[in-house]
Amino acid sequence: MAAPLVTLAAGVVFGVALAAPPGPMNAIIAEESVLRGWFAGFKAGLGAMSADVIFFLLAALGVVAFVEQFPLVRAAMVGVGGFLMLYFAYDAGTDVQSSFRGAVDAEPDSSGGTDAEPAAGVGAGTGFRKAFVLALTNPYQVLFWLTIGVGLLRPGTLDVFAQAPYVGKSLAGVLVVETGTPTLVVGFFGGIVVWITGFPAALVGADRRTDAFAPVVAALSAVVLAAFGVVFLMRSAGVVLG
Asked: Domain range spanning residue 226?
């Protein structure tokens, strides 16, 4: 395989590896997918990726570098992100209640039909805004683009799997590629597109096979968002009070 194709493939793998681990972004994508359909989940993923594109451009221009120099700014971002996650967790909880009620209302009536209206159109478009705003207030995404992300454009090397959350240490050295080429950046964002396309599709497919899948996924999404929200607020308070 030619070197540019190897670099492109490595970028795709890198994008998928960073987008796939559980977290607040995937919680929103999952909730939107199972409650409102594939396109809603895909749009939520686009919201998160749009924030990444903005951070990439700002980091490449050096505009975002000031965040690294001011701990209180980072603490404020963490705090805002925490409050947003708790709010979205509450919102996800109301979606869980609605989906459970919808499942009950969808029981066949005496005429063989159902009384429930499909929920796919409810709240359409909110997933993009939720993921986009949450990603913009996520300090970890900012720090990623200040460090590893900016390094994608600088000549050097990148240990692709070493940067993946949770499993990076065990996979360090497996795939190392040269940085400083647009091909790697294109592949990286291509990998994110692969994830935000395939992840919602997999969830929707599972939901069609299991009646209780959507409420369970929505409930788990609420728990994940609430947990990250509490962690973010605690870290923000630690910086301010410490």
From this structure: 3-103+123-241
